Amino acid sequence: MKELVELIAKSLVDNPDEVSVNEVSRGESIVLELTVSKDDMGKVIGKQGRIAKAIRTVVKAAAVKENKRVVVEIV
């Protein structure tokens, strides 16, 4: 999951070197914290949060196949 989020984020931003994903386990779920540079924050979130919602949807679909619960947070 971590690699999937990182791949998607790096393809969206201008500074792919500043993209980092931190995986944190909280109880039954896994939280993926996505960090990008301030200049690229708008590109990852998108207008009205549409790109962020799409990223979360793709990750949740991949997590269902592995019987896991994954949450993506943009920090």
Protein model, in words:
- The protein is built from three helices and three strands.
- The chain has about 80 residues and is an alpha+beta fold.
- The protein has a three-stranded mixed β-sheet.
- The chain is globular and about 35 Å long.
- The model has no long low-confidence stretch (mean pLDDT about 95).
Q: How would you sum up the major sheet?
A: 3 strands, mixed
Report the radius of gyration as a whole number of Å. Answer: 12 Å
Instruction: List the uncertain runs.
Output: none
Largest beta sheet: strand ordering = 1-2-3
Cα-to-Cα separation, first versus last residue: 17 Å
3D shape: globular
Q: How many beta-strand segments?
A: 3
> Which structural class should the secondary elements be placed in?
alpha+beta
- What is the overall pLDDT average? 93
Instruction: List the total number of helices.
Output: 3
Order of helices and strands: HEEHHE
Multimer state: single chain
Indicate the percent of residues in helices.
40-55%
Q: Strand percentage, roughly? A: 25-35%
